[in-house]
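Z., the sequence and structure:
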Amino acid sequence: MDRSGSTTAARRSPSCGSRTATRSTCRRARTRSMTSSTGRRTRSRPRSERSRFSAEEGWPMAETPVVQVSHLLDERGISGFHIQLIVWSVLIALFDGYDIAAIALAAPHLVADWHVERSALGPVLAASNIGVLFGSMIFGWIGDRYGRKTALIESLLLFGILTWLAAHATSLQQMFWLRLVAGLGIGGVIPNMIAINIESAPRRSRATLGLIATGLVPLGGALPGFVSAALVPQYGWQILFLIGGIVPVAIAVCAFFWMPESIKYMSIHEAQRGKLTRLLERLAPGYRVPEGARFVIEDERQSPGSNPKYLFDDGLALITPLLWLLFALNLMGYFFLLLWTPTLLTAAKLPPATAALTSASLQVGGTVGTLALIAWINRRQFLAVAILLLIAVPVVGSIGYIGLNASQAMLLVASFLAGACVLGVQSGINVCGALVYPTSLRALGSGWELGIGRLGSIVGPLVGALFVRMPVDRLYLWSAAPFLLGAVICYTVHRLNQERMRSRPWLGQMQAAR
């Protein structure tokens, strides 16, 4: 039987064309079609190989070249491209953290200049976090839809301009609305910055680059403390917002021209094909992307789209809401410490300079804690974060007592250790939470984690306003409770994620490589 006869035999089978055909009859018809005139049966090809053969003729078609993006990144390792990306991340993270913390350092001066009660500052201190709640979700979706770089630039421009305008506010009402809208932009930075670093790094360095990208946010939060101590006495509280507005806008303009896009984001968007080809050839000198090649991310399963409902698929139905609760608890405790510590310590008769340095020490400790976590995060992930949360409980609970009964040096040490634990935890769950999701959902997943988590950051300052008359030592003792509950939840997520990987072998191998 010739080739055409073989094909005709498959076509003549009435069973495969009828509505009543069974799988067995179709298999027999396909077997007959693959049997030659000599009576020998040809080998049945696997599905991936059969896709390269004509359904009608059975002859090989031209194979489409495939570029395995993750494999190519793993082969190259860390390069100058990644150093460039880290520099951009450091600049952006510093002023994202700066703008979050600036209002806390300005708050005591607003009380004096505008003659308002300390309790009236609660809504103003929480305003930017309300904006971040929605901004992280909105810009997370923008990042998955239009690109991480685009979302980052828009975020920088938005919060930079609004922060500059805050320097010209004349009332608490004006300051509330300006901080609220600025929060939209602030919220877009972290999810997209984590995504762009993780998606451009080799497997063994993904968590490390993600931590570096977020680890400088606490250090940026320390900068207003130094600016407040050095410049506010001479130039007034407005200088905090002028610096926090002008620099992010300048960074956004430079990023438009020189900042690279996420490699994996470009690999799943056909419109970015030309940019990705040039970038990969620059990363691997001597390598040429084949003409018409198809880019694949071989160690991920992409979702059908950027829809929040997919955050609950593939074994994430319980993990996703627990991550949201974990983010909320940690941010609740963190923003209470960040936004109320200067005001509470000043009210406890400590010098304003000491209160400012305590706030700065909290942020510096956060950077050190985040960088120290690098040694654990690649192997331990959520378990390492749970241990840090347990350490945070006694450290945070003792700050008020130490502030009232010990030296300034002891207070700075306690604040430093609290920052190392609490902000190290936040950076850790930022990265671990992002690694749970595939590229097509990563910015959205991180955005929703931070967005829902910001409910806690709103509650933290408001709780501080409600209990501001409580003795300082007791108030700090109660502020440690969210970290204890967070440790329990984090360990639960760790166990659930382990079970998820065991039940999905391909996922276990992928995350083990990370």
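Confidence is low (pLDDT under 50) at residues 1-62, 508-514. The longest helix spans residues 80-114.

Let me know what you think.
H.
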